[in-house]
Amino acid sequence: MNLESPKVSLEKSPQEVFDFLSDVKNFEQLMPDNISKFEVLGDDKFLFALKGMPEIVLKKKESIAPNKIVLGAAGKLDFSLIGHIQETGTNQSDVQLTFEGDFNPMMAMMIKGPISKFIETLVKNMTKVV
Fold first, then answer.
1. What is the CATH number of the domain that holds 62?
2. Were both Cys, which of 87, 96, 103, 109 would link to 7 (CB 3.0–4.6 Å)?
3. Which pLDDT tens digit goes with each residue over 43-72?
């Protein structure tokens, strides 16, 4: 299952956006309002939970400065959250998040809506806090 957030434009250089997303503590500022738990578990890993959903641990798996950062699930489920950062001008960049996961059709149907809304919220919140 592959999902894409809308692209957002930020008044920041790709390196500034990359640096922000590379610090896992900053993801707390991007989380939706219905977050029930957020905990940093190390320099490259954090745990979060949304109301009514199980806890999810994300770990930084790959980073290609200043254009791409990959967070992967550090649990039973296999999925990645990928931040794509593209320079559009001086101190301007476009950011898009993609979610890639391998789920059975029933699970994919159940999580497609909530995950789509989640990554859309993360990217929209970037326009406010990055």
1. 3.30.530.20
2. 96
3. 999 999 988 888 999 999 999 999 999 999
